[in-house]
Amino acid sequence: MAKVKKQNAFYAQSGGVTAVINASACGVLETAKLYKSKIGKVYAGRNGIIGALTEDLIDTSKESRKDIAALAHTPSGAFGSCRYKLKSLEENRAEYERLIEVFKAHDIGYFFYNGGGDSMDTALKVSQLSESLGYPITCIGIPKTVDNDLPITDCSPGFGSVAKYVAVSIREAGFDVASMAKTSTKVFVMEVMGRHAGWIAAASGLAAENEGDAPHIILFPEVAFNQAAFLQKVDDCVKKFGYCAIVVSEGAKYEDGTFLADAGTTDAFGHKQLGGVAPVVANLVKQELGYKYHWAVADYLQRAARHIASETDVDQAYAVGQAAVEFAMEGKNAVMPTIVRKNTKTYRWEIGEAPLSEVANVEKQLPKNYISKDGMHITDACRDYLLPLIKGEYFPPFKNGLPQYVKLKNEPVAKKLDTTFEIE
Amino acid sequence: MAKVKKQNAFYAQSGGVTAVINASACGVLETAKLYKSKIGKVYAGRNGIIGALTEDLIDTSKESRKDIAALAHTPSGAFGSCRYKLKSLEENRAEYERLIEVFKAHDIGYFFYNGGGDSMDTALKVSQLSESLGYPITCIGIPKTVDNDLPITDCSPGFGSVAKYVAVSIREAGFDVASMAKTSTKVFVMEVMGRHAGWIAAASGLAAENEGDAPHIILFPEVAFNQAAFLQKVDDCVKKFGYCAIVVSEGAKYEDGTFLADAGTTDAFGHKQLGGVAPVVANLVKQELGYKYHWAVADYLQRAARHIASETDVDQAYAVGQAAVEFAMEGKNAVMPTIVRKNTKTYRWEIGEAPLSEVANVEKQLPKNYISKDGMHITDACRDYLLPLIKGEYFPPFKNGLPQYVKLKNEPVAKKLDTTFEIE
Predict the structure, then answer these.
(1) How many domains, chain A?
(2) Which residues are annotated as active site (chains A, B) (predicted)?
């Protein structure tokens, strides 16, 4: 049964940001405006859940309609996000109680939490505890992660755009290397995100539509690195196509579970150098095969690349934000809107729903049948799954040659509590 | 005086490719078609000048009009490029004589050479030697370099697009880091190209339109790295804005001329690791200030990024290709079309001309008054110069979410010589 009392809502962004998480925020804010009899103000957490814990709330009603609309084409987290995982209820019940104290003080009856698996877990616990404390809060999760590792939902908003970025980038770099390979670089290595799952690396494979197209090799976290087979394939590609374009996931591992990135590069001072699997792979090729190489590490560029966002992804990110508010209005609780694939050939999708209890803390790995037999590329099944997710362009507006992204005013809400809370 | 005899033309791409060098090729090929009474076929060198030396010519007349037109939106070098610098006439006269032998065999009277300073030097020498050998060839240079270091011309085609890419990328990554800085990454380092000149690094500064915008710090090859001043500024930025976004040119140097990139990182096997100034700078920040960091190395992604090319750049690349043919038709020789800036406020440009003798082997450095007093950002004069060059978007066509780039058939021309030539 839907609530009748008008209450405020709280929205927070969590974890690593994406090119489209603000499109979800836009969906939440624009939809909440349609329910003025039930939803008062929408407060946002400054720097995510930390803003709730420290009573540092942002009054989104102070933003113009135009600026809210511009969130749909602005990457990053407009209210700030954070990497702050609440402990379990047993370990730190005080945190959850504090959240509810703040929500109560600001008459917040709706909690929209935009994040990955951990965030869904937090939203679930707040829902449960608030009930037992006699101040029930409607908690709706909004899926977001470039890693595409949330269960139940067909895909996670944020993934489609990074997928498009890596596929476009390796196609372009592949063209470049192909034209120079005769006398210069023969092997190009591009490192992409994905510490635990190879979804992003897999997406680069979409660029290879015909034999010989880049990328020729993809290294996944799911497949133990086989140095001999890898070097053989690099050599074969160079001999056959004149060059070899490689995409490596930051999470690529040896058989024993060690990350390739931790191979142990040290700097001039003998300090262990952190990060960068691409140079490790490139150096290996140079040492063993002698080929001239170049490497790139896209890092944040990939997940922030709103200029080349997938239209499908932007649409879905907006839709899950919109659906979250509608779910709350329908009296639903402790659920998350999902993307349901209705058809692949002519891609159609709709919004579904999943209980937070089934989403929390479950990671969706790349299925085995999405990886080619040699472990170094994607299968047609994978291609069929991925392709619709990068479709369509939704360019931001440009001025003076640059994309125009909005910075909100982010005006604070006056504090109501005389208590403070220290973030550990 | 214009030639009357109909002769074939030879076109070659040289050095590092760009997002728009094929637009120059498109300008050459489409314009040559307008002069059928004077220009027979246009042959292209497979892999640049090597194709001429080895008599490996491509018959561009076998390509469809549609494919030629598609060159305007295709990055890389469609006929292959090479890093192959001809020695001086004194050192290797045989190479120049061989070029003229091949040109003579294929009735080539026009030589269009699309490259940087070295290539202009080669074109000049071919012009001079062909004259003295009694087989005069019209030699026209076509400017191309992402480094923007050619003299006389206001800018070099290829630069505007990489400039746009780096400005867009640091803006996007800056938004990303700003939203996460409270609990996560506080310092972001992006490495860009430019071994000898800081033009590309400077272009990133266009993204900083208001106080606090990324990038906060730019490290140029032209300014000796001042570690203390740098660290102080990083710390100031983090304290003032919550984060610090840094762009570093691959050519950034210490006072003694050593590259920062050569600071001496070694891999697990004790081998010196090549390249990557971004991790060096990031590690320095971590060690001295303790801030969490991320870094990106754009490498080839930046110069291949046709998807975010500058419209101004594409237009100018096409125009210099077109002008090269028109110059030849007007009987000019040993010249290069240039971009002449007519107005900056309301940007207007036109094609000018420079003698190859004045272009060859001269590098245009970033002027002193383009670098801010503290040596770590750009001035308004620099901004005024750069801004028009990144203006306008010229997106390639997309299909299935990916940009559609053309691969030419590149059919060989039958050899006429029974001599061969070994490339060293």
Answers:
(1) 2
(2) 147 (proton acceptor)
Q: What is the pLDDT of residue A266?
A: 55
Q: How many CB atoms lie within 10 A of CB B398?
A: 18
State how far the Cα of A234 lies from the Cα of A185, in Å rounded to an integer: 13
Kindly report the length of chain B.
Answer: 424
Query: Where in the sequence is the domain holding B17, given as residue range(s)?
Result: 7-145+309-362+394-403
* CA contacts within 13 A on the Cβ side of A373: 0
The rounded distance, in Å, linking the Cα atoms of A53 and A369 is 43
A56, A67, A107, A147: which one is catalytic?
A147
> Could you say which of A276, A287, A307 has the minimum Cβ distance to residue B168?
A307
Amino acid making up residue B166:
V
B164 and B229 part of one domain: yes
Residue B8 backbone dihedrals phi, psi, to 5 degrees: -80, 165
Mean pLDDT of A246-254: 96
- Contact call for residues B15 and B81 (beta carbons, < 8 A): yes
Tell which B residues from 3 to 62 touch A, by Cβ distance under 8 Å. 13, 16-17, 19, 47, 50
CA distance B114 to B92: 22
The DSSP result for A121-162, as a single string, is HHHHHHHHHHHHTT---EEEEEE--TT---SSSSS-TTHHHH
Q: Please report, for the domain that includes residue B187, its CATH number.
A: 3.40.50.460
Kindly state the average pLDDT of the residues A189-207.
96
pLDDT at B3 over 60: no
| Structure confidence by residue, pLDDT tens digits, B368-397 | 999 999 999 999 999 999 999 999 999 999
Domain contains B278: yes
Positions of E strands within A130-240: 138-143, 187-192, 217-219
Give mean pLDDT, residues A315-343: 98
Segments in A339-399 forming alpha helices (H): 356-359, 380-386
pLDDT of residue A1: 47
Give the confidence band of B275 by pLDDT, cuts at 50, 70, 90: low
Rounded (to 5) percent helix, strand, coil in chain A: 40, 20, 40
Specify the CATH number for the domain of residue B72. Answer: 3.40.50.450
Rounded Cα–Cα distance for residues A34 and A12 (Å) = 20
Q: In the predicted model, what is the mean pLDDT of residues A36-51? A: 97
Residue B147 annotated among the catalytic residues of the structure: yes
B9 touches B39 (CB < 8 A): yes
| Tokens found for residue A218 | 């993809």
Give the minimum alpha-carbon distance from B275 to chain A in angstroms, rounded to a whole number: 8
Q: What is the DSSP string of B255-321?
A: TTS-BGGGS--B-TTSPBPP--HHHHHHHHHHHHH---EEEEE-THHHHH-GGG-BHHHHHHHHHHH
Domain identity same for A287 and A327: no
**The pLDDT of residue B1 is above 50:** no
Helix extents (H) in A39-92: 49-53, 65-70
Tell me: do A132 and A168 sit in the same domain: no
- Which residues of B are less than 8 Å from A265 in CB distance? 265-268, 273
Residues 289-348 of B with CB under 8 A from A: 294-301, 303-308, 310
- How far CA A396 is from CA of A54, A274, A306, in Å, comes to 34, 34, 7
Restricting to B residues 222-281, those with a Cβ less than 8 Å away from any Cβ of A are 263-269, 271, 273-276, 278-280
Of A167, A182, A387, the CB nearest to B80: A182
Q: How distant, in Å, are the alpha carbons of A190, A304, A336, A347, B182 from that of A148? A: 20, 16, 15, 18, 24
In a domain, B70, yes or no: yes
Q: How confident is the model at residue A363 (pLDDT cuts 50, 70, 90)?
A: confident
The confidence band for A348, taking pLDDT boundaries of 50, 70 and 90, is very high
- Overall residue count recorded for chain A in this entry: 424
Contact A28, A128 (CB under 8 A): no
